[in-house]
Amino acid sequence: MNKNGFLKQIAYALFGLLPKLVLLLQSDLSLFILQIVCRQYQQNKKGQYACPDIYDPVCGTDGKTYSNKCELCSKILSGSKLDMAYEGKCVSITIM
What we know:
This protein is α+β, with helices and mostly antiparallel strands. The chain has a single domain, classed as 2-Layer Sandwich (Wheat Germ Agglutinin (Isolectin 2), domain 1), CATH 3.30.60. A three-stranded antiparallel β-sheet has the order 2-1-3. Strand 1 and strand 2 form a beta hairpin. The radius of gyration is 20 Å and the shape is elongated. This is Kazal-like domain-containing protein.
């Protein structure tokens, strides 16, 4: 077998494992969730958070990017069962 054939076999093996690895990472994501503390934000008389207009993105466990932690807390306050996965924009992995 030549070098190119060997490299192709390695590439096929890696791409075959990639979807399984992504599913494993998604299923174990709960181990790495950062429990967000929402009580640090003040609520108005209607019980809603008055969030600052600051862009400091966080990724929710629903895979959506929120403009800041307070915006995520507002979504949680509305009854959504989610938390913060990590700081920064959500990143999606596309498998071809």
